């Protein structure tokens, strides 16, 4: 997703909530959502706007994408760490 897409979508939400986002805040949203497809982000933002009286935080939008997203990311990181550990152990066994 482009920064322009995120900026335009959040600017629209900003008008609805009468809240201005700073450039650093927009950068945070971009860094979090740059890997997501446009339609997934836009749908989640729309659902966040429809369900909350408050401007959506990144966590609100991610929750709309998948309520278990954060836990899945943590699980994936844990599995990756274990795979790296296992590879190191296997390498050490080959050296001995």
Description:
There is one protein chain. By secondary structure, this protein is mostly helical. It has two domains: 1-65; 68-96. Helices cover 78% and strands 0% of the residues. It is built from five helices and no strands. It has helices at residues 3-17, 23-33, 38-51, 58-65, 69-95. The longest helix is centred in the last third of the chain and has 27 residues, at 69-95. The chain is elongated and about 65 Å long. The model has no long low-confidence stretch (mean pLDDT 90).
Condensed summary:
By secondary structure, the protein is mainly alpha-helical. It contains five helices and no strands. 78% of the residues lie in helices and 0% in strands.
What's the arrangement of secondary structure elements?
Layout: H1 3-17, H2 23-33, H3 38-51, H4 58-65, H5 69-95
Helix pairs in contact: 1-2, 1-3, 3-4
Q: Shape, please?
A: elongated
Give the N-terminus to C-terminus distance in angstroms.
Answer: 48 Å
If you average the pLDDT, what whole number results? 90
Sheet/helix structural class: mainly alpha
Radius of gyration: 19 Å
Name the beta content range.
under 5%
Regarding quaternary structure, what we see is single chain
Number of helices: 5
Largest sheet entry: none
Low-confidence stretches: none
**How do the SSEs run, as a string of H and E?**
HHHHH
**Count of distinct structural domains:** 2
The level of helicity is over 70%
Number of strands: 0
């Amino acid at each position: 997703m482009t920064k322009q897409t995120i900026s335009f979508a959040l600017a629209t939400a900003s008008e609805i909530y009468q809240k201005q986002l700073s450039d650093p805040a927009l950068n945070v949203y971009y860094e979090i959502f740059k890997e997501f497809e446009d339609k997934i982000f836009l749908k989640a933002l729309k659902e966040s706007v429809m369900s909350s009286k408050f401007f959506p935080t990144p966590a609100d939008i991610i929750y709309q994408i998948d309520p278990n997203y954060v836990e899945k990311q943590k699980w994936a990181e844990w599995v990756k760490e274990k795979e790296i550990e296992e590879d190191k152990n296997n390498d050490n066994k080959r050296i001995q």
